[in-house]
Amino acid sequence: MSILLTGGAGFIGSHTCVELLDEGYDIIVVDNLSNSSAKSLEHVHQIAGKPLKFYHVDLLDRERLENVFAENKIDAVIHFAGFKSVSESVKHPLSYYHNNITGTLVLTEIMQNHQVKKMVFSSSATVYGYSERMPIKEDEPLKATNPYGRTKLMIEELLRDLAASDPSWSITLLRYFNPTGAHPSGLIGEDPKGIPTNIMPYITQVAVGKLQKLSIFGSDYPTVDGTGIRDYIHVVDLAKGHVKALKNVLASPGITAYNLGTGKGYSVLELVRAFEKASGKKVPYQLVGRRHGDVAVSYADPQRAMQELDWKAEKSLDDICADAWRWQSCNPRGYSN
Ligand code: WQD
C-alpha cells in the first residue's frame, strides 16, 4: 500500500511517516518546506530504517502535483499541508484562504482525476470555536472564530460535499486538540520558524536558553489556577491515530469526524510545573493579560475515536514534557543545528 502525505515533512506529518513505515506502508511525501525542513525526513529514515519518496512540491503547483500522481500508484492521501498559525491568519487572511483552500481544491481535483478517493484530513479543534460544553464531542456546533479555523471548517464542508456527490469517496476528518511532545528518539520534533506562538516550543526554548521568559496569557480565567486549560496530546499518540484513521478509510466509504485528544485538560501552570519536573530546568515566567481569541477551557471527548477507530491516547503529560525537552536539548536550534 502506497500512501501520499501532503505536508509530510512537518511536525505531525514526520511523526506519522515513522508510524506508517513501521506498519509496512510505502510512503510518498509532498511538501513545499515553507514551514518545515527536509532534514526531518532524513531523521524519519534514520528512525524507521526504511526509505521514503520525497517531492519538494507546492500543492498550488498543479502541473508538478499532477506528475506525482502520474508517477506513483497512490492508494490514499493523508492531507497535512496548510498554514496553521491563528495569529498569522488574522494578519494575512487571504494567504491563508489561498494556501489552505485552493491547495486542497487542487489536491482533491487531481485525486479525483486519478481515481484516488481515500483521504485522511488534518483538521483542528478550532472548528468548535468558543464551546461552552466540556468535554467537546464531535456533534458540538461548528463555529470557527479566526481565519485559520475557518479554512479548516470550509475544507471540512468541501469534503462533505465531495463525499455526498460521490459515495465512493472515503474521508476521515481528524480534529486535533493540542499536539505537542516529540518522538522519544529526540531526532524529530516541533521546530517552528521564528518566535513560537504555541506554548510548548516556547517553554522548551526558554529552558534551553534561546528565549528569556515565558509570558502566561491570562491568570483570571474561571479555572483551577486562573490560567487556560487545554488538552495536550502527545504527537506520537496523534500519529498512531492517523494510522488507525487510514485503516478506516481503506476499509469503508463515507465521511466521519473524530476528536483526537486525551479527554483530560491541564492548565498552563500545571504544564509548566510538569515540564520543570521532567526536565529539571526552571522556567521563569510572568503573568500577563489574556491573548485575544483564546478560550478559557478546551478538552476533547475522544469516545468516538476509541470506539470506532480502536484508538486511545496512551502517553502522559510527563511523557510529553520529557520527550519535548529531549528533542529541544538535543537540537537547540531545531533542524538548523
Ligand atoms: C495553549 C495555552 C494560551 C503561548 C492553537 C491553535 C490550534 C492548534 C494548537 C493547529 C493557552 C497559553 C500560549 C504562550 C501562553 N494548532 N499560552 N503563553 O491556542 O490552544 O491552540 O495551537 O491546529 O488550532 O488554535 O495553543 O499553545 O498557543 O496555547 O500562556 O506563549 O497556552 O493562552 O491557554 P492553542 P497554544
From TrEMBL:
The keyword tRNA processing does not apply. GO terms for biological process: galactose metabolic process. Its cofactor is NAD(+). One of its GO terms (molecular function) is UDP-glucose 4-epimerase activity. Its EC number is 5.1.3.2. This is UDP-glucose 4-epimerase. It is an enzyme of class 5 (isomerase). It comes from Paenibacillus taihuensis. GO terms for cellular component: cytosol. Keywords: Carbohydrate metabolism, Galactose metabolism, Isomerase, NAD. Pathway: Carbohydrate metabolism; galactose metabolism. The keyword Heme does not apply. CDD domains: UDP_G4E_1_SDR_e.
